[in-house]
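Q: What residues go here?
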C-alpha cells in the first residue's frame, strides 16, 4: 500500500515531497499503486473498490501530516523533528492496526460444542436397531482382535530330520 523508498540498509524512508517542490506535489493524488487495475473490468469488484478508497484515505492522512510538517519551517529544532517522526510512526502504526482489523473482519470463532451424530432413519425403531447393530459390530471386532494369534506353520517333513533341514530351513523362524 505504501511503496516507500528504501535506504541502503533496507529501511523505509517516508520522504516529505512538500519540502522538495510544493508545485509538483499538488499534482499528485496519492492513489495506491494498484488502483489503476480497477479500470480493468475483469479485476473490478465492489470490495476491491472499497479497499482502494480506504487505502487512499489512509494515504491522504499521511499526506496531510507531511503538509502540516512542511508548514513548520524550523529545520534546526531536533525536538520538533523527533516529535514529527513520532507522529508519523504513530500514524503508520494506527493504519497497520486498522489493516489488521480489516483483514480479520471475515474471521469467525465457533463455540466448538459437541454435536450429536445425525442418522438417516425413518423412525425410532430403525434408530434403535441401527445403534444395536453398531454396538454388536464393535464388540465382534474387539473379540476378533483378542483372538488373533500367530499360528506356527507345520512343515511337510518331521522336525529335526535331514529333509526338513535341507528343504525347510526357515520353518521355525
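A:
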Amino acid at each position: 500500500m505504501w511503496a516507500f523508498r528504501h535506504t541502503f540498509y533496507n529501511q523505509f524512508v517516508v520522504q516529505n515531497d512538500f519540502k522538495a517542490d510544493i508545485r509538483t506535489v499538488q499534482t499528485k493524488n496519492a492513489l495506491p499503486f494498484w488502483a489503476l487495475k480497477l479500470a480493468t473490468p475483469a479485476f473490478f469488484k465492489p470490495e476491491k473498490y472499497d479497499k482502494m478508497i480506504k487505502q487512499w484515505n489512509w494515504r491522504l492522512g499521511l499526506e496531510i501530516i507531511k503538509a502540516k510538517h512542511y508548514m513548520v519551517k524550523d529545520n534546526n529544532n531536533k525536538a520538533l523533528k523527533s516529535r514529527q517522526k513520532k507522529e508519523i510512526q504513530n500514524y503508520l502504526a494506527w493504519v497497520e492496526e486498522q489493516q489488521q482489523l480489516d483483514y480479520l473482519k471475515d474471521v469467525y470463532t465457533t463455540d466448538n460444542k459437541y454435536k450429536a451424530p445425525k442418522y438417516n432413519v425413518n423412525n425410532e425403531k430403525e434408530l434403535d436397531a441401527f445403534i444395536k447393530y453398531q454396538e454388536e459390530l464393535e464388540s465382534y471386532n474387539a473379540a476378533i482382535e483378542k483372538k488373533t494369534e500367530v499360528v506356527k506353520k507345520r512343515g511337510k517333513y518331521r522336525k529335526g530330520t535331514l529333509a526338513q533341514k535341507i528343504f525347510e530351513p526357515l520353518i521355525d523362524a
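A: Context that may help when evaluating the design: The two ends are 71 Å apart (CA to CA). The mean pLDDT is 82.
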